[in-house]
Design a protein that fits this description.
By secondary structure, the chain is α/β, with parallel strands linked by helices. It is built from 11 helices and 5 strands; from the N terminus they run H-E-H-H-E-E-H-E-H-H-E-H-H-H-H-H. The protein has a 5-stranded mixed beta sheet with strand order 3-2-1-4-5.
Length: 275
């Protein structure tokens, strides 16, 4: 059995725990060696110098020059219950093994992927990494249609990019009362990047639940029960993932933010007599 199988394959699936959705969040670092080879051929440029030039140009480095260093995955049941989570290849976080475990899990669970901005970042990153390392993702490509393909919540909430969602995932998380972004500065080491990634995956899950209220798949009462169940699960996992302590504490510190809008200010120019 491979390391990927050890980390992702459930031993004896329990009744009612079938995985219907995999909520994912990823992060990457620029590949300086690839940048030097493609953008500065013949210059014998060191990878760190190629990265410095790219940073000085003040332009985003395209996903094709990135390598994944974090992928956190949440397993979600057909009734939208949070079953478990994992940051792949912890604590080593080796790019090739992260990618291997990810595509193994996609094939094994045969579940719909749920992302935030995944169509523009997470999925191209992992597709290109599968290409780079020669890793099979057959079932994923067979399932890329409107009924079984990935759900990108950024696309879903912006009518396929019809407008720019200022604030992104952070603003959506805070609109529904979940912690949102915990870190005000870029993460430092790879472990910290994975911590941020796990928090992003959790925010994506809770945003996903709210969109399922909108689609009528669950009621508001069911959403509240699912959120409570997820928080209870996370509280049992703090020793395994200490960042969850900060995540839950941030949630508790903002009791005024919640899933209702009763306290929101009335739009200017409207009132009882407004049409």
């Amino acid at each position: 059995m491979t390391l990927a199988e050890t980390n992702l394959r459930p031993t004896v699936p329990e009744a009612g725990t079938r995985t219907a959705f995999l909520v994912i969040a990823g992060a990457s670092v620029p590949d300086g060696k690839l940048l030097a080879s493609v953008r500065h051929p013949g210059e014998d440029l060191a990878p760190e110098d190629a990265l410095r030039r790219a940073q000085e140009a003040n332009e985003p480095i395209p996903v094709s020059f990135q390598a994944p260093v974090a992928v956190c995955v949440l397993r979600v049941a057909p009734d939208f219950t949070l079953l478990n989570f994992k940051c792949l290849d912890a604590p080593h976080f080796r790019p090739r093994e992260i990618v291997n475990q990810f595509w193994f899990g996609v094939t094994h669970y045969n579940a719909r992927l749920v992302t935030f901005n995944g169509r523009a970042f997470d999925l191209p990153l992992l597709e290109l990494a599968a290409f780079r390392y020669g890793i099979q993702a057959r079932d994923y490509y067979l399932a890329r249609d409107r009924y079984r393909g990935p759900i990108d919540l950024s696309d879903w909430l912006t009518n396929s990019g019809a407008y720019k969602l200022a604030g992104g995932l952070d603003v959506l998380a805070k609109l529904i009362g979940t912690p949102g972004r915990l870190f005000s500065v870029p993460a430092g080491g790879i472990a910290e990047i994975n911590d941020r990634c796990l928090c992003d995956a959790l925010d994506t899950y809770f945003v996903f639940l709210r969109t399922r209220v909108m689609t009528g798949d669950i009621t508001s009462d069911q959403e509240a029960a699912l959120v409570a169940g997820a928080k209870a699960l996370l509280s049992t996992k703090v020793a395994e993932a200490p960042v969850l302590g900060a995540y839950l504490a941030a949630w508790a510190a903002a009791p005024g933010r919640g899933p209702t809008v009763g306290g929101a200010p009335e739009p200017a120019g409207t009132g009882a007599g407004a049409p």
